[in-house]
Design goal:
CATH superfamily: NAD(P)-binding Rossmann-like Domain
Helix content: 25-40%
Largest sheet: 4 strands, parallel
CATH topology: Rossmann fold
Mean pLDDT: 79
Number of domains: 1
Strand content: 15-25%
Length: 146
């Protein structure tokens, strides 16, 4: 089993689901994990917050830090990277996991949202998927190469 001892991950969308599973897997191997997620308060239908996720990371054997933020906002992503540098000395791995979720019953979903920047309709997850995947990698690039 490979080790992540002294390696630092920044995981977007890390408060639950796949992001949390990745964070826990790395934590079990000794990783430092910075979790970037919007979920500061419990959701009525979904378990976990970024803070409970950090507690889970630490219970699994890793070190964790929570950053409440939105992956679509460059300043929030930069705060996550800065937090990793401040607490752990840098960023070794970036996991771009954030996505959008709809908790409404399927029959109530329109599947579209109007983006105010251009007025076009797109599936509601597109703003997260378009900007959210690139932002952490772009902001995190210099520390990753250090």
């Amino acid at each position: 089993m490979s080790t992540f001892t002294d390696r630092t991950l920044v995981v977007s969308g890390g408060s639950r689901g796949i992001g949390l599973a990745i964070a826990l897997g790395a934590a079990k191997r000794g990783a430092n994990v910075v979790l970037l997620a919007k979920t500061a308060e419990p959701h009525p239908k979904l378990p976990g917050t970024v803070y409970t996720a950090v507690a889970d990371v630490e219970a699994a054997g890793g070190k964790g830090v929570a950053v409440v933020g939105d992956v679509r906002k460059e300043e929030d992503v930069q705060r996550a990277v800065d937090t990793a540098i401040e607490h752990f000395g840098g960023v070794d791995i970036v996991i771009n996991n954030a996505s959008a979720i709809a908790t409404e019953p399927t029959e109530e979903l329109s599947g579209q949202e109007v983006r105010p920047d251009d007025g076009h309709q797109r599936p509601r997850h597109v703003p997260v998927d378009e900007g959210g995947a690139a932002a952490p990698a772009q902001v995190g690039e210099p520390p990753q190469r250090a």
